[in-house]
Structures are given as C-alpha cells and as structure tokens.
Amino acid sequence: MKIAVVAANGKAGKLITNEAVKRNHDVTAIVRHKNQTEAPQVLQKDLYDLTAQDLKSFDIVVDAFGVWDPADMDLHESSLMHLVDCLSGTNTQLFIVGGAGSLYVDAEHKKQLKDTPDFPKEARPVAVGMGKALERLKDRSDVQWIYVSPAASFETDGVKTDDYTIASNEYVENNEGESKISYSDYAIGFVDAIESGKYNQVQISIYQN
C-alpha cells in the first residue's frame, strides 16, 4: 500500500513509519524538518500546509501529530480537522495515533478513562484535547477514519514483546491487572490494523497481553 505518515519524526510516527517500510509498503514520511526515518520518500511540509492534492495518491494517511504543552491543546482538534478536510470524500483511510483517555470504562459508554479518579492530573489536558478532537471526528461520515488508542500506560522505552491484542474502544487490563503497551508493540499492532482492512469509522485500542 501507499502510506503517508504525517509527523513521521515523532516517537510513534517514526516507529510506525519504519515498521511499514520493513513490511515493504510504499511509505512517504511527511515532516517539517529533515527526515529521521527509513522512509524512501519524503515530503517536507507543515501539516497545516498539506492539501488534498498532496494526499490524493495515498491508500493510507497516518496522523501521528501530537502536542503536550497545555497552551496548545486546541491543535489536536484543528490539525485533525485539517487532515479530515483534505481527505473528505476520498477512499483514503485516515489512521490516527490517539490517546487512552477516551477509552470507555463502562459497558454503557457513559464514562471515559480520563474522567476516573485515578487518571493522572498531569495527563488530563492532553486527554481532554485529544478527546475533543475525537468527538469532532465522530461527526464526520465523509472520511474513512480509524482512531487507534494505546493502553493507559504508553511506554516510550517499553520492551517489544510481540504479544498484544487489538481491541475495541473499551478500557482493558491484562491478566496481571495492567493496561500497558510499549511504543514498539503499538507500532506493530498499528500496522497490523492497517493491513487487516477491516476497520472503518471506529475507535480501536492496542494493549499488551
């Protein structure tokens, strides 16, 4: 498949890019600065400057953009909506590197992880910002989107185990009572989800068994 990864130099974006290259997909890294990935093609351009013309040839566009400064939380929503507008009415699938805060902790889907008492206060601004972007995304039936949440503990330096599950939009703990996933396993599961071709307009999650 022809895959473009927006913000490919980021922690998740880089691993997803390299995993897709490893599997012999035709990958383009979309970056603002010098490419730091293994992608054979590079488009050096700011996300907000991307156009429908830039993205029209891709089967998959991966949105790996993220910000953590509390003052920039609105960028989660505006950046995602810009990509959605670029892909509106096309057959290109938009896979989003999401957050865990929007996972539901009840079967009725009334309460999300970010609203539980033990959710880390320092992570809440990001969770709220990403949650608002996801709610806007759910209103867009004109785009083939897939929102991919990690487990609650998203471990930058976590061990690659190759032992993970792709699940629904509900919070899940493994047999040890943990909800975690390494960036490495997340990237593998992310590309697995792309290759499966079975998801559309849905939030999924990836957690370590």
TrEMBL record:
Name recorded for this polypeptide: NADH-flavin reductase
InterPro entries listed in its UniProt record: NAD(P)-bd_dom, NAD(P)-bd_dom_sf, Polyketide_Oxido-like
Pfam family, one: NAD_binding_10
NAD(P)-binding domain: residues covered: 8-188
PANTHER family: FLAVIN REDUCTASE (NADPH)
Gene Ontology molecular functions: oxidoreductase activity, acting on the CH-NH group of donors, NAD or NADP as acceptor
